[in-house]
Amino acid sequence: MADGSPLVHENVPRNLSFETNLSYGDVDKALAACDYVREDRFQTAAIRHGFLEPHAALANWDSSGKLTFWGSKQSPYFTYRNMGKALGIPPSRVRFIQPYLGGGFGGKNEMFAVDFCAAFLSRKTGRPVKIVASQEEVLYAYRQRHPTLIRIRTGLQKDGTLAAIDAEIIADGGAYKSMGSMSLYIMCTRLALPYRVPNLRARGYRVHTNTQPSCAMRGHGVPQIRFAAEVQLEMAVAELGLDPVEVRRKNALQPGETTGNGLKITSCGLTECIEKAGDIAGRWRGELHREGNSRYRKGVGVAAYGFISGSRLAGHNTAAAQVKVHEDGGIALITGSTDCGQGSDTALSQIAAEVLGVRLADIRYGTLDSEITPVDPGVFGSRVTFITGNAVKLAAEDAKRQLAEVAAEVLEAAPGDIVFRDRRVYVAGSPDRSLPFDKLVKKAQYSGTGKTILGRGYWAPEGIDPPQFATGMGNQSGAYTFGTQVAEVEVDVETGRVKVCRLAMVHDCGQTINEMLAEGQLEGSAIGGIGHTFTEEIIRKDGQTINPSFLEYRMPTALDACEVASTHTDTVDAMGPFGAKESGEGIQVAITPALVNAVHDAIGIWFKEIPITPDVIVETWNSAQRRNKGAQP
Fold first, then answer.
1. What radius of gyration do the chain's Cα atoms show?
2. In angstroms, rounded to a whole number, what is the distance separating the alpha carbons of residues 633 and 621?
3. This prediction's pTM
4. Over the stretch 123-143, which tens digit does the pLDDT of each residue have?
């Protein structure tokens, strides 16, 4: 960033890829009036997404000048549009078929060289072309999470009331912009969650470097900023001699509040999450056996978070769905959303089955095909269950309405009195006046001129502002999720190894659609967060990545997993399908600060840089011991 530094791109002065300047309230005045102000500097490392299926593309250019493309993508319609631009053909001449996806975590939203080159080579040769990146190439040259330097100053009153935050964020964007504008915008704006912050200033700088580009990764910028904010809050509360759980409860956002930058909080179970987490942490601390001179030391930490349920981008933001009822009562469901491992195909199918009163086994979810399935914004920002789920619910209700009209004639009742349940339809209050669902469909299709039952639905939350990247102002989502994380660790002060003993999550995700899927998402986020905190880092020497394999790049495995418990609050969101909100991505935001706070509770040392590797712990611990001995009379 310094004047006179070599430029990555000649047209980008000081290598500043993008800047965000969010400000509301009077930060300087508020800080001057605070009883306590603390300033710290935090740092996070570059890490990988860790999906097991590498980037892959298969392209077939036919003699009519049409491209059929199969790719490993979270957001196929990004590819569909950009491929058309690159080839100089209309999007309707690009057919994108989405196979099953082997993970994404934000790293497969964009187009890469394998995609364009497969298409161009197929057009040039007249033959199908398939390109698959090796896992080494993915780790060596593809996208990463933004490394960050964060300077944050926080002011509180002596009773723990949060008064102001002043932050400066420098994000290493790598050689290209990717979706970095959104990344920086998110980092700045999410300082307003999950607590009430009456005065906030966040200046963000995304800087080009001669490394791989940085992009979205699970949590998209929020894990970095909340690591800094949550750990610093814990440090401040410790110096003030206050209860960290009570301070979080005191400052927690409530339903109906609007943050200073315009985030409108509707449903919110944060207070319940904090109280339950406090009970768990208190119980765990009571079970610890602490010995002052022990090699193995245990500690418990707590952190909280807030997250979105689907973000708003410029341009097309509506999800759509279609339900087709077959004559045997089977149902075909199609949307434009991709299941990249989160289980959304199942959750969306459950929504359709619930509306139509059939079983999950009766629903067949169709593979994404741009010639058949509706256009979709993509899979990012935890939007699928919340936004596509509402579209599916509307499509199923449309089909249900058509069938109810037929059932009303057969059963001699009003359409509004027809109940759909357990593969049967009947008149409300008279369950004996009924017929099986499949027979109702046959009557609809074979009576008179016959009907084909096709239900359609499309949905996007209203009142959501397009992102103001430069200022960070505006409401970003139709609903926000909240939660807390409790962590217990054991630190070996001789080797520096940290064992995560157990984790407990309390999550406000509204009404859970599928308990098992939600639990799996939460556990996956939790174990992933262990790696981000203690082991994962892209290591470079002289500009070259020197750990481009899963042997040297240490993601957690089953051997690193621990006991994980998850609990949900009794929250129902009025806008979400059947009251549901985001589940899974948000919880990763709180994992790292909870673990860092637990390490401090164990050994009395604060860490402001992640990952906290064994050598760092040993060096820091030994230095602290030498200082303590030197201070003794």
1. 26
2. 21
3. 0.96
4. 999 999 999 999 999 999 999
Residue 632 pLDDT: 65
**Of 70, 54, 53, 79, the residue nearest 122 (C-alpha):** 70
Tokens of 231: 């750990």
The H or E element containing residue 238 is helix 222-240
632 within some domain: no
| Assigned token pair, 555 | 């993601």
Q: Give the pLDDT confidence score for residue 352 in this predicted structure.
A: 98
Answer yes or no: is 2 within a domain.
no
**Bond prior to 54 in cis (omega within 30° of 0):** no
Nearest CA among 227, 265, 233 for reference residue 248? 233
| Alpha carbons 231 and 229: distance in angstroms, whole number | 6
If you search the block for the tokens 């064994």, which residue do you land on? 614
Amino acid letter at 498?
Answer: V
Residue 603 lies in a domain: yes
**Which residue ranges in the chain fall short of pLDDT 70?**
632-633
Asked if residue 452 and residue 366 are part of one domain, the reply reads yes
Farthest-apart Cα atoms in the chain, separation: 101
Q: What is the pLDDT of residues 176-232, one digit of tens each?
A: 998 899 999 999 999 999 999 999 999 999 999 999 999 999 999 999 999 999 999
Q: Output the pLDDT for position 293.
A: 80
CATH number (domain holding residue 377): 3.30.365.10
Residue 291, classed as helix, strand or coil, is: coil
The DSSP-derived string for 469-492 is TTT--S---S-EEEEEEEEEEEEE
Mapped onto helix, strand or coil, the DSSP state of residue 27 is helix
* 409, two tokens: 């004639």
| C-alpha span between 292 and 295 (Å, rounded) | 9
Q: Which two tokens stand for residue 531?
A: 């790696």
CA–CA separation, 159 and 250 (whole Å)? 9
Q: Write out the H or E segment, with its range, that includes residue 124.
A: helix 113-125
d(Cα 342, Cα 77) in Å, to the nearest integer? 19
Which one, of 590, 565, 570, 562, lies nearest residue 505 by Cα? 565
- Token digits for 68? 């059929």
What is the C-alpha separation between 479 and 582, in angstroms, rounded?
9
Distance CA 583, CA 573 (A): 13
Same domain? For 80 and 100 the reply is yes
C-alpha pair distances (Å), 15 with each of 47, 146, 174 = 22, 15, 10
C-alpha closest to that of 232 among 615, 628, 596, 626: 596
Q: Which two tokens stand for residue 54?
A: 């590498």
